[in-house]
Amino acid sequence: MELVGRMPDGSVSTPYDLIGLLWPSAGPPIRQDEKMKRLQGVPIFQRCTQRQLRAVARITEVFDAAPESVLTRAGEPGREFYLIYDGTVRVVVSPRKHLRLGPGDFFGEMSLLDGEPRSATVVAETPLRLLVIKSRNFWDLLDEVPALTRNLLLTLSRRVRQAEQSATM
Questions:
Q1: How far is 169 from 22, CA to CA, in rounded Å?
Q2: Global pTM value
Q3: Quick check: 17 and 134 in contact, CB under 8 A?
Q4: 139-167 per-position pLDDT tens digit
Q5: What is the 3-state secondary structure (H, E, C) of the chain?
Q6: pLDDT averaged over every residue in the chain
Q7: So what's the pLDDT on residue 23?
Q8: In the β-sheet with 121-124, what is the strand arrangement from edge to edge?
Q9: pLDDT-wise least confident of 15-19, 93-97, 112-116
Q10: In what order do the strands lie in the sheet with 128-134?
Q11: What are the pLDDT digits (tens) for 100-122?
Q12: How many CB atoms lie within 10 A of CB 140?
């Protein structure tokens, strides 16, 4: 089944392409040093050097998304890593389990790491500004910034523990 995405201007993009649901940011440009400052506040990037942060900032693209945009769908392939710059999203893990993420939070890393389909559906709750790293750049980034791999593993471990704890409640 081919999915169809609707652009903010009402036009239709086909076949379904997530980047077709996002559009390059029309807001004020985000300078490299601003990206680096925001990235440094994110737990997985906190141990990165300035040189490493510059490498991360260089490969991020800035996109906007409208409220109610579906950014990821559970069961579909994942090709992007997202860092929320401004706004909030709702993460739907199951009918009973919803999480809210905001500025500085990220999602999409699991599918890039293991190649498996997305494990959750993520929907914009508010207008969003996102820093996006495409999969082809993600692996190069992990090679260039080895500390990032360690930080990703720690974050994933924390997320698994939180999920396990929620399941037992």
A1: 37
A2: 0.75
A3: no
A4: 888 887 777 788 778 877 887 787 667 66
A5: CCCCEECCCCCEECCCCHHHHCEECCCCCCCHHHHHHHHHCCHHHCCCCHHHHHHHHHHCEEEEECCCCEEECCCCCCCEEEEEEECCEEEECCCCCEEEECCCCEECHHHHHHCCCCCCEEEECCCEEEEEEEHHHHHHHHHHCHHHHHHHHHHHHHHHHHHHHHHHC
A6: 79
A7: 65
A8: 70-72, 121-124, 89-92, 98-101
A9: 15-19
A10: 23-24, 61-65, 128-134, 80-86, 106-107
A11: 999 989 898 888 778 888 989 99
A12: 13
Q: Comparing C-alpha atoms, which of 124, 130, 108, 10 is closest to residue 66? A: 124
Band the pLDDT of 127: cuts 50, 70, 90: very high
Q: Count of residues for the chain? A: 169
Return the residue matching tokens 């993009």: 13
Ordered structural domains, the chain, with CATH: 5-160 (2.60.120.10)
Q: How far is CA 128 from CA 66, 68, 161, 163, in A?
A: 6, 10, 28, 26
Q: CB–CB of 35/105 below 8 Å? A: no
The two three-digit tokens of residue 129, written as one number: 């500004």
Query: What pLDDT was estimated at residue 139?
Result: 81
